[in-house]
Amino acid sequence: MISYDAIKRLSGDLYDWSLKKIPEDTKVRLAEAESMETGANAKKVLQFMIHSARVAEEEGRFLCSDAGVPVYAVKVGSQARFEGDVKRAFSDGFDELVERIDPPLLRFVQNPLTNERSFKGKDMPIVSWDIIDGADYMDITCSPKALGSGRWAALEIFVYPSLEDIEKYIMDTVIKAGSQHCPPVMIGVGIGGSFDQAAKLAKMATLRPMGTDNPEPILADMEKRLFKAINKTGFGPMGQGGDTTALGIHIDYSAGHGFTPVAVCFNCWINRRTRARIYNDGTIDRIE
Amino acid sequence: MSQTHELTLPFKAEEIERLEIGDLVFLTGEIIVTVGLPTHKRIKAFIDEGKNLPLDFDKGMLCQVGCYVEERDDGTRVCRYINPSTSTRFEPYLPTIIGATGIMAVGGKGGVGPDTIKSMRENGCVYLSFVGGASALTSEAVREVVDVVWEDFIPQFRLTRLRVEKLGPLNVGVDVRGNCLYTNLQEQARDKLDDLMEELNQTRPASP
Ligand code: SF4
After folding, report:
1. What CATH number has the domain bearing residue B98?
2. ipTM
3. Pairing of strands B24-34, B61-71
4. How many CB pairs under 8 A join A and B?
């Protein structure tokens, strides 16, 4: 049985870990980008980023002072069995983490109606739920989100767009964001489905490990071409100017009707993401 | 060719004038930090009402930087971490603050809006951008929490004066001549867009 206590602890830990370590795939991409960057100052900025991330990980310090808000993508195995409340375990896990995390968090949970800031709020943490048929575990990814990169996400509804229309929209969104979202960024794109589905696809696409191939050939090709084009825009790391504006772009799609939403979102270069599975027998497998 | 500068606070006008967009800067001295919108609003209100500000801003630097100050039992204050916030949010207040306080640099990330750039040009002030997400190394430059005022705000909104040593690299985003790195980059990217789209079209496999 997967217990309330275990989920509470693990969800808090995943948020904690995500704030102090960048994912392995992101380290690899940053190192590649640094070796290929031709801008002298851009290279210095990338080196500073890589060095800072290493210090954060080694010394258990925050990557960024802005911890964002905790966001989880949870997949529940259809064979998973629970003891106690599951949803409450996530909100209690966050409350408990606020008390125990070191260094302490600043207050980032904002009520959009009153602008009040605290450690609590309606629907906080933000959790999306999915089902994995047959699995006897719960798979939890934590990917916190802050204003810096969060505010540049965009969605537009097209009617029968061509691939060119879609690519143009992505390029426009990238140029509009410029260097505001702490580039080099990880870009997620969702095409089709419905309004909410496209946004979810885009978010989930950012979580796909870098370097993995897109199973859909049209999108695999689109990712490669857009990646090149985006890195030719010239914004560079932190707007220093240079060849490294994006770490990657991942695109997913869903079938839909004639209206085609296209959603684009960004993760800043620290690309915070942790993931673990918790099994019916209580074992925890930390994946990232 | 962009350069790297080491500057000390309080600033000297000629040193600030020498900075060009794209240069890198390391700073030593005392800076003032806050990420509070209400704090910027209050600074502006003090200026509008002709009241004295609780900290001296002259020839200094105001940063949109979040800071966690820990109060130890013995009364000492320790800064656990700092890092920049998005500066464009403060656009309604920065032009007045730059015009009235004598600050010669604003620090944050992502750049500032057109009115702030205008005020920077008129008042000999520059914008210095921190590397977002690099809190671990950036925080190592903090040597001392010199002062914390307006403690009625939540911690990261208070006005905090920090003594730093070799803080950086900071990137010159706006210089005293009103040149803006971010506007230039965005214009350059827009100019390239037609060519980039052409390239995307040329390389896209034909639809079945
Ligand atoms: S966008 Fe920048 S400032 Fe915001 S969390 Fe990411 S790295 Fe930190």
Report:
1. 3.20.130.10
2. 0.91
3. parallel
4. 171
